[in-house]
Design a protein that fits this description.
Elements lengths: L3 E6 L3 E7 L5 E8 L4 H13 L13 E5 L11 E2 L2 H12 L5 E5 L4 E6 L5 E7 L7 H10 L4 H8 L13 H13 L4 H23 L5 E4 L6 H11 L3 E2 L8 H17 L1
Parallel strand pairs: 1-4, 4-5, 6-9, 9-10
Antiparallel strand pairs: 1-2, 2-3, 6-7, 7-8
Length: 265
């Protein structure tokens, strides 16, 4: 049996997926990224390899593809492929009928239109400001003195929404702190933050040509409050993935490894 790997070296988390010759996931890992992407990728690969009895190290993989922020730093990778292509392929093998993705990473927001074969038809990306990214949500949760999960659940309880007008992550955090200091309802401020991010996602989705059902990838896809806000703003159904949405980039990379490894054998 041959195994194929994908390592998504992200700025916030490093993810690794190993699949078999039929494309079944046999190992998956999500780890907080270290400051050194080489060490982050090595840690994730070692942990994933440890989940497969027939593998001793990442060198034993038939083919390995690196993707993400640190894709050029993945040890033993035969090649690297952009995270945009890998997220598209990951969603394609998980939910072939879904042709649109909003990927909310640690540093950027992407809208991706997917072709029938899992390749990218079009995409748009906001990487000029941290507002609307995973790091933005982390700073908002810190301002609320709660975890990301607690922050997501809080916004779901809001009966009204307090708009967040600042377009910059730094100014938005200051605005939120001021609203909290004024004694405004915490859940309504949280709902306003979710709505603000959803509007940024709307812009990226429309630029990419997203008009029908969409799915969310990246760690922020687990934010139920954001999912609800995106459905409201885009007026589309957000499809839940059968596989952890944070693994989509690594899964797509592993599928590309399977395709390329099969051709090169």
């Amino acid at each position: 049996m041959k195994y194929y790997g994908g390592c998504d070296s992200g700025s916030t988390y490093t993810k690794c997926v190993i699949i078999d010759e039929q494309g079944n996931i046999v190992a998956s890992v999500i780890r907080k990224s270290r400051i050194n992407p080489v060490l982050s990728a090595q840690d994730a690969l070692d942990e994933a390899v440890g989940q497969v009895n027939n593998l001793a190290s990442a060198k034993d993989l038939a083919y390995l593809v690196g993707t993400g922020y640190g894709r050029n730093k993945v040890p033993f990778a035969q090649e690297n492929i952009s995270e945009i292509s890998c997220h598209a392929m990951g969603v394609h093998v998980t939910e072939p009928d879904v042709k649109a993705i909003i990927d909310i990473g640690g540093q950027d927001v992407k809208g991706i239109a997917v072709d029938t074969d899992g390749t990218v038809l079009n995409f748009a990306m906001n990487d000029k400001c941290a507002a609307g990214t995973g790091r933005f949500f982390e700073s908002m949760a810190r301002a609320f003195e709660m975890s990301l999960d607690e922050f997501s659940e809080l916004s779901m309880t809001a009966k009204n929404t307090i708009p967040i007008t600042a377009q910059c992550a730094v100014f938005a955090e200051s605005e939120v702190i001021s609203l909290v200091g004024e004694g405004k309802p915490m859940e309504e401020i949280a709902a306003g933050i979710q709505l603000s991010v959803a509007k940024r996602c709307f812009v990226m989705a429309k630029k990419a040509g997203v008009t029908d059902t969409v799915t969310l990838t990246g760690g922020c896809a687990k934010n139920l409050g954001l999912k609800k806000a995106i459905e409201k703003v885009l007026k589309v159904k957000v499809v839940d993935l059968k596989v952890d949405p944070q693994l989509m980039g690594a899964l797509g990379a592993a599928e590309y490894a399977r395709i390329k490894g099969s051709v090169s054998k």
